[in-house]
Amino acid sequence: MIEVSGLCKAFGDREVLGGVDLTVERGSVVALLGPNGAGKSTTVKILTTLLAPDSGTARVGGFDVVRQAREVRRIIGVTGQQTAVDRILTGHENLVMMGRLFRLGTAAARRRADELLDRFDLTEAGGRPVKTYSGGMERRLDLAISLITAPPVLFLDEPTTGLDPRSRAGVWDTVRDLLAGGVTVLLTTQYLEEADELADRVALIDNGRVVAEGTPESLKQRVGSERLDLTFATAGAFELARLVLGPAHFGEGHTLSVPVDGAHDVREILNRLEQAGAQVADLALTRPTLDDVFLSLTGEPAIGATR
Fold first, then answer.
1. Do 74 and 68 contact (CB within 8 A), yes or no?
2. 3-state secondary structure (DSSP) of residue 132
3. CATH assignment of 2-220?
4. 8 A C-beta contact, residue 5 and residue 19
């Protein structure tokens, strides 16, 4: 549904995109991740016809974003980081207004507004001014507005920024419902947990290029194996464990972190420690996260917004 090949863009002598390649299959969600200034927002602006590339090609729904920009706009919905709602109007009035702007008749716009209020669990709030809404309700209304024309492709630019955990989970449920209905989603997010939760595939951009792409699980496997974190109550037990497990293992304080491959390795390590008399006070099995992937491939942790 989305095809990007060799996309390049520069502002003056500053190269922002240096040949981005990206594919998003119909009915799937791809999360676009990367450090600040990596080129994610520029990529989205090009795909939504707001910005022209210097070179390369991009097609959405089979339409070229430059030569067939009008056709692209007819099949996409966009939700930006800032909600695009009139906070003085009611939720229902916002939806009707946008329906009329999309050239729906008055009756059709009202019917569509009612449908979307119901879909996003906003029917009871539909007659209230948006300024009385919570952050999560306002974000859901913004998503509803982007679906006025039932577009098959949806671009979500950090849709849950600033929301509390409960509101964020509500938006996630909404995105899942959209996917179940066959909508194709390109998501940029500052929350790696969000990408892990929602994305079929993740594309990591760094310095204007896609440096890694795959399912969340396949990207985690690139970082390394699972780790068994072992905490010891005393310095003596800790030193004994280091002798038993070997110098290649590392830890902080009285904790050792040992790479493992499945339950068999965990049992073997614990048996060896027990036989040696190195008493374990606590343990945890840690799997690689997208945060580990981010740090490994970009050289910096995923802290704050990753626009």
1. no
2. helix
3. 3.40.50.300
4. no
* Amino acid in the structure at residue 91: G
Helices (H), the chain: 40-47, 69-74, 91-101, 106-119, 135-146, 165-180, 192-198, 216-223, 235-245, 263-276, 290-298
What's the pLDDT tens digit per position in 214-260? 888 888 777 666 788 899 988 899 889 988 887 656 666 788 888 77
Tokens for 161, please give them. 């920024």
Exposed, middle or buried: residue 88 (CB in 10 Å: 0-12, 13-18, 19+)? exposed
What whole-number distance in Å separates Cα of residue 278 and Cα of residue 211? 43
Q: Which helix (H) or strand (E) covers residue 191, if one does?
A: none
Per CATH, 2-220 and 225-287 having the same topology is answered no
Q: Which CATH class is domain 225-287?
A: alpha beta
| Residue 73 φ then ψ, to 5° | -60, -30
Closest by CA to 209, choosing from 21, 63, 50, is 21
How many whole angstroms separate alpha carbon 75 and alpha carbon 31?
A: 20
Q: What percent of the chain has pLDDT over 70?
A: 92
Tokens of residue 61, six digits: 């729904």
